[in-house]
Design brief:
Length: 123
């Protein structure tokens, strides 16, 4: 009986260590997931800023009769966009090759904080 003294103390120490390890692992997962969610939110804002740039390019082309080439940039709330539209190029390495794009090519880049998204459209 004397050799079993303190066994419960060691057992409880091991169990508490395992419980601490599991809780630290879980908290690390939660922090990692929250960082991913923040990045996704920023990415969505940058994407919609780029979409706004495409809409601006289409508006300039159809409503204001602006002919290519044209470029513009503007802040949208806390995000910003820059848009370039031009006629398709015969160069296949151009971002707007002539065999794919018919009349105009619009490339818009939206930025929000450190995230950047690009959207292109053709007509």
């Amino acid at each position: 009986m004397k050799t079993k003294k303190g066994f419960i103390l060691y057992l409880s120490l091991i169990l508490l260590s395992l419980l601490l390890l599991m809780s630290l692992s879980l908290s690390q997962i939660v922090v990692f997931q929250s960082k991913i969610l923040q990045t996704i939110g920023k990415s969505v804002i940058a994407y919609y800023a780029a979409e706004t740039g495409v809409e601006r390019g289409l508006y300039e082309y159809f409503v204001n009769n602006q002919n290519p080439p044209f470029s513009a940039s503007s802040p949208v709330d806390s995000a910003q966009y820059s848009v370039i539209f031009h006629s398709p190029s015969p160069n296949p390495n151009d971002p707007c090759p002539q065999d794919v794009y018919k009349e105009i090519c619009i490339i818009s880049t939206g930025k929000f904080l450190d995230i950047q998204r690009t959207v292109s459209a053709n007509y």
